[in-house]
Amino acid sequence: MTIKFGTDGWRAIMAEEFTFANLEIVVQAIARYVQEAGLADRGVVIGYDNRFFAEKFAERSAEVLTGNGIAVLMSKKTLPTPVTAFAIQHYKAAGAIMLTASHNPPEYNGIKFIPEYAGPAMPEITDRIESFVNEMLAMREQKSLTIPRLRVPKAQEQGLVRSIEPHDAYIEALKQVVDFSAIGASGLKIVVDPMWGAGIGYIEASLKEAGLEGKAIHDYRDPLFGGIMPEPSASVLTALKEELLATGADLGLALDGDADRFGIIEADGSYINPNQVLTLLFHHLLTRKEERGKVARTVATTHMLDRIASKAGLEVEETPVGFKYIGQSLRDPACLLGGEESGGLSIRGHLPEKDGILACLLMVEVRAIAQKPLTEILAEISAEYGTLVSERLDLHTLPEEKATILEALKSYNPATVAGQKVVKRLAIDGVKVLLEDGSYALVRPSGTEPLFRLYVEANSEEELKAIQQDVKQALGL
After folding, report:
1. What are the Alpha-D-phosphohexomutase C-terminal domain coordinates in residue numbering (predicted)?
2. Shared-domain flag, residues 236 and 355
3. What is the arithmetic mean of pLDDT over 270-283?
4. By C-alpha distance, which of 200, 12, 204, 194 is closest to 99?
5. 250 and 142 in one domain?
6. Are 158 and 297 within one domain?
7. Taking the model in full, what pTM does it have?
């Protein structure tokens, strides 16, 4: 078998590939990386979400780390990914192990390493960890692998396991970047849906600290996530929408399974997609809070950010897909906002890690200060900067067809698409063509499946459909 880190760690189906034996190998590889980096004396935070057997996987991870003489800092309850990342900074740790499969189905679990800078691990780090993993997989095949473990009671006796509770300190940190006073003065009625995940209680506690009471649904642990994926998308958040409409609340806020992604629903039931959230937030930071700085976005994220930045004379940094690249940009104090169309964002002064709790509270702040629905603010932005509509299509192919399409993609460099002149071709991540009217099309192959993702942004629905059809036909998708 192989254990490979994807865009955000290693994920697999429990009892099939995500087993205690395989987890031990990954944790041992992380221990070796921490030792090699000279950080072992600072200890490692362990966080875990609400998935099945989460505590047991966390305990086994602690046994391997302490078996290597590395101290462990672990909460007695689940921690969201952004709070685990915050704990690294707060306790000055060497990094963190986060046990989560994020928004994946309930049968999955996963593990990722968050380095000492409290943002996603860059490829050079995960590549090094993977090299250790591969060494140990080969040793296991030869039956020569031994992984040291120290039982938790023994580790506690030796002072190698320390209990932490970063909840209150994390909320205090949110106060530095979110206007709690404006939120409290707004009197808004909020409904929160943490989707049975690790984010339970965090938005509610923040709203209460600000002076608002938020009503919560799905705020108890369910490892099966109510029989749905813990993904805060429009198609999944039907219960939140129903609750919002039934109670007459002003805003619905949702988190995914580990609370690093967000979902926003307006009072009328409208889903505010991540591209729109980034647009609202960037506009708000520039106009309402009068902040300045570059914006970092992935190649697949809305160019409305570019339009706003251009008018303000600000830089846009375009990165490959994956929040790890956005996180690197956010480590630059000149970067005001970083985000991606898949639902991750953070801002200057906070963590270089995506944070759904922060994103939700910032949308409450936007709503509170503007004193109007988010849909109205979006309409005003469109009136000033023009309209952009976007859509992602996941296009499945046969495995034997994928290589042919990949070859076609390498040479894909059309003069026009759907009657629009191509003004630029980019190959940062997949192939992206920019059209003269500001539209774009991006095609990215999946690294693991016979699947291609087609992202299109255009000035109208009709143009969007025409671009999609042209690209699909040209590449045989």
Report:
1. 415-472
2. yes
3. 98
4. 12
5. no
6. no
7. 0.96
Task: Say yes or no: 132 and 176 in one domain.
Answer: no
What pLDDT shows up at residue 446?
A: 84
Q: What is the number of structural domains in the chain?
A: 3
Mean pLDDT, all residues of the chain: 96
Query: Between helices 123-141 and 20-36, what is the axis angle to 10°?
Result: 130
In this structure, are residues 185 and 210 in contact, taking their beta carbons and an 8 Å threshold? Answer: no
Residue after which a domain boundary falls, among 385, 400, 422: 385
Range of the domain at 461: 389-475
Mean pLDDT of 436-463: 93
Q: What spatial distance separates the first Cα and last Cα of the chain, rounded to whole Å?
A: 31
Greatest alpha-carbon span in the chain: 72
Shared domain check, 140 and 26: yes
290 shares its domain with 381: yes
CB 66 within 8 A of CB 27: no
